[in-house]
Amino acid sequence: MARYIGKEMSRVDGVAKVTGKAKYAAEFKVPNLAYGFIVTSSIAKGTIKSIDTKEASRAPGVIHILTHENYPKPAPPTAPELKPETNTNVPDKSFRALQSNQIFFNMQPIALVLAETFEQARYAARLVKATYNEEKSMTDLESSLDKAVAIDPQRAAVPRDIVKPRGNPAQAFQSAPVKIEAEYTIPIEHHNPMEPHAAIAFWENDKLTIFDKTQGVYVVRQHLATSFNMPVENVQVISPFVGGAFGASLRPNYYPALTAMAARVIKRPVKVVYTRQQMYTGHGYRPHTWQKISLGAQRNGKLTAIIHDSRNNSSTFQDWVENTTEFPRTLYACPNADTPQRIVRTDLPTSASMRAPGAVSGMFALESAMDELAYALKIDPLELRLINYTEVDPDSGKPYSSKALRECYRLGAQKFGWKNRKFEPRSMRDGRFLVGWGMATGVWGAWQRPASAKITLKSDGTAHVASATSDIGPGTYTVMTLIAAEYLGLPPEKVKFELGDTKFPEAPVQGGSFTTASVGTAIYESAQNIKRKLLDLANKDAASSFKTAKIADVEMIDGKLQIKNNSSQSVDISELMRRNNLTELVDVHQAKASPEREKYATGAHGAQFVEVKVDPEVGIVHVTRAIEVTASGKIMNPKTSHSQEIGGVVWGIGMALQEATEIDHRYGRIMNANLQHYHVPVNADILEIETIFVEEDDKIVNPLGIKGMGELSMVGIPAAIANAVFHATGRRIRDLPITPEKLL
């Protein structure tokens, strides 16, 4: 009997991706295409005094040039507000290009040159001349911490609740016998997906079709309907493949509306693709974050106070707080906690979600501070975490639906050989290298969002499954095929799953690691509906062997409807459909989180153990060994899941040791907006990584027991590396990335 969940399955889209058959946003063939090239500002704040396009207009192949002076005025925004299931319930306040002569950030779009070829558009873009009334810009968070303000709901990109303090943290900290107080900083970091952001747009009368690189086709559809004041049903957004996004395409970026407007103005299809440099201001970024952690503890290690003050930068036109303190405040049993979050408005684009947003930044600070506390108390860092372990959410008092973190600690420590660690810094060596062992904890949500799917079961023994979700790389095509195959009782090769198109039923954006839980549950429940329809068909027959069977007693397996584990009481599904003159059975279903979840705290957890070797003469750090143990519910496909975990560890290594967007604050300009000078890990940086799953049986989070893992896998890694570097060198680096000059 064929079963697929929990078994290794190769990517169903793998061959298409390696042979070039998979089409990304900029690769669709559209006749009579014109090419757009974006011109960007050279100042960070002020207004455009004049913009001269005469020479550029005369360049070969140029069709038209859009600037703020001739950009058609947007229609009055009467479109409905975004629905809650699209992840926000505030009106779309995202930045739109060429709306006025005002400059909010350096490298802001100031013109779009349209030409017959990409090369002609790029050449003419260099001939556009602008002069400015320049004002003094401010782009440095740390020089303006005193200007931090609470997020304004009217200006918020995403609304955030203000979380009240728990207990009396200030008093508890003051009276604690052992205290740790430290500041931690993380620079701006940029998503650098392989595929640059791009769109192709064309109009047919009043209907707009756009191919876009997005994590949510419905969000872009709503954004475009709002931008053009048109009915949403007149906009089709298509995005079947996304070459990485990591949060850079969660919110609508400025180029889809710009591309669509250009296509409307010149009355022909238009393609716009960001250059790598334009990606640094064309979508968001992980914000510059300053955090101050104050921990109070008893001499036995029990925490009495956590005060976690976080401030990050946003833009002057939109507020975005990274939510760095949500997860840290609930990780440990501590009666008193305060976690204020504020923003500093800077002359930069709005910051955004970037893989494991908030959690990886907040946990870098908390888990580094916990390591500092362990040394102040002379308690092993793992032991300190176990002393403060909690089985309930400290805020609500609710028990966790499942939490196998204790087992993650035990298994990781055993596999790593943690008991052989010498406590004192600089006490372990390998020849001339200083050896350090560090550990940390990862935590992430186990969310489920409303999501819909459509199943069409055909009498020829095949099925078509569709949902307007996205696949930014984690393997959505594969896992949805696998879930459908499992519950429809078909081989995976007989199931075709499609996504990334607004003609399919609505699904949430792909972000927050909740896609499999949300869309997978919709497919599972829709398959149950199909099974119910088949059971009703079977029971039309007076001689049916299912007359007394309840739906839970029946399964679909190997093309049959049968009593569970009893193939003698079965009926061939194709035969049953043909007998009833049905070529197909269709079900469209929306799945929502169960009310049962409200009684519990939910989350996914992990433990990270890292070994570093540091060359004391040049300060270079190598992560020689990393063990990641993850508890994230039921593992659907171990093959792609281990790949996700390894990718998260690699990203954590980059965040800890390499990644930083450098800004020249005199001009508010990004200095390393390219892959030559923005450093990310390469093969030579990655040595031994082992990923292990501790599976949890949790039917409260959703019927399939799925929790997200793609972001969880990086959450504790930067802290674990920083803690290992301290153990190796005795130097506590609280300012990421940990580069050689900070150690020398």
TrEMBL record:
It holds the Pfam family Ald_Xan_dh_C. GO terms for molecular function: iron ion binding; oxidoreductase activity. Residues 19-136 form the Aldehyde oxidase/xanthine dehydrogenase a/b hammerhead domain. InterPro entries: Ald_Oxase/Xan_DH_a/b (IPR000674), Ald_Oxase/Xan_DH_a/b_sf (IPR036856), Ald_Oxase/xanthine_DH-like (IPR016208), AldOxase/xan_DH_MoCoBD1 (IPR008274), AldOxase/xan_DH_MoCoBD2 (IPR046867), AldOxase/xan_DH_Mopterin-bd_sf (IPR037165). Residues 69-92 are annotated as: Disordered. This is YagR, xanthine dehydrogenase YagR molybdenum-binding subunit. It comes from Nostoc flagelliforme CCNUN1.
